[in-house]
Amino acid sequence: VQLVESGGGLVQPGGSLRLSCAASGFTFSSYAMTWYRQTPGKERELVASIIILNGRTNYADSVKGRFTISSDNVKSTVSLQMNSLKPEDTAMYYCGVRLGLRAYWGQGTQVTVSS
Asked: What confidence tens digit (pLDDT) does each residue in 30-56 have?
C-alpha cells in the first residue's frame, strides 16, 4: 500500500489550497479514504472522509462548508479542496486508508496558513 500526498504549502488566511493523495497497492474503490491533520502536541484529527463506492462524505464540524473531499476512481486519487483557510487549519495533513485491522498513512503534506 502506498499513499502519496501533495499540494501543501503556505497560504494567506482566506486563501485556498488543493491537496491530492495518490493511492496504490489496494482496490481503491472498495474502501473509504480519509484526510487527517495533526499539529505538534495534539492528536491526529479527522478532517474528512469519503466512501469511494458510493461517494458518501463526512466532515469535521470545523471544516464543514469550507473543505470538500472528492475522489477520482480512474486515477485512484482523493483530493481535499480547502477554501477560506484559517490560521487554525495549519497542520500536517495525512491521507489514510484502513484495510481490515491495519491503517495506512502517507508521509503527509504541510499546510501553513499565515499572513
From this structure: 999 999 999 998 999 999 999 999 999
